[in-house]
Amino acid sequence: MSGKPPSEHFRLLYFASAASFTRKSSDTFPAPLPISDLFSVLEKKYSGITKAVLDSCAVTVNLEYVDVEEESGKEKAGVVIKEGDEVAIIPPVSSG
């Protein structure tokens, strides 16, 4: 998983339970994509991922945390994932 995503795409990285659910460590998706649409795109590709993973995960775009729920509630477009961006789905880490 090295290099840049294909032209007009962004790379999505999966960690922990997200990687287990998708059986992948990464994917590429067409860009641009409003962050508020990300979960519905993933749910369409991986049925059940919203409840199993996304409802309790963190999301980063280019290593900066983004609040997807807050972005979804905005009337005007907020964060937009652009070509070449790196997005990560980071499930909560439990300690014990």
From TrEMBL:
The modification Glycyl adenylate is found at residue 96. GO terms for biological process: Mo-molybdopterin cofactor biosynthetic process. GO terms for cellular component: molybdopterin adenylyltransferase complex; molybdopterin synthase complex. C-terminal thiocarboxylation occurs in 2 steps, it is first acyl-adenylated (-COAMP) via the hesA/moeB/thiF part of UBA4, then thiocarboxylated (-COSH) via the rhodanese domain of UBA4. Transmembrane segments: none annotated. Keywords: Cytoplasm, Molybdenum cofactor biosynthesis, Nucleotide-binding, Phosphoprotein. SUPFAM superfamilies: MoaD/ThiS. CDD domains: Ubl_MoaD (cd00754). GO terms for molecular function: molybdopterin synthase activity; nucleotide binding. Its main location: cytoplasm. It is found in: Cytoplasm. Pathway: Cofactor biosynthesis; molybdopterin biosynthesis. InterPro entries: Beta-grasp_dom_sf, MOCS2A, MOCS2A_euk, Mopterin_synth/thiamin_S_b, ThiS/MoaD-like. The modification 1-thioglycine is found at residue 96. Belongs to the MoaD family. MOCS2A subfamily. Acts as a sulfur carrier required for molybdopterin biosynthesis. Component of the molybdopterin synthase complex that catalyzes the conversion of precursor Z into molybdopterin by mediating the incorporation of 2 sulfur atoms into precursor Z to generate a dithiolene group. In the complex, serves as sulfur donor by being thiocarboxylated (-COSH) at its C-terminus by UBA4. After interaction with MOCS2B, the sulfur is then transferred to precursor Z to form molybdopterin. Heterotetramer; composed of 2 small (MOCS2A) and 2 large (MOCS2B) subunits. This is Molybdopterin synthase sulfur carrier subunit. It comes from Letharia lupina.
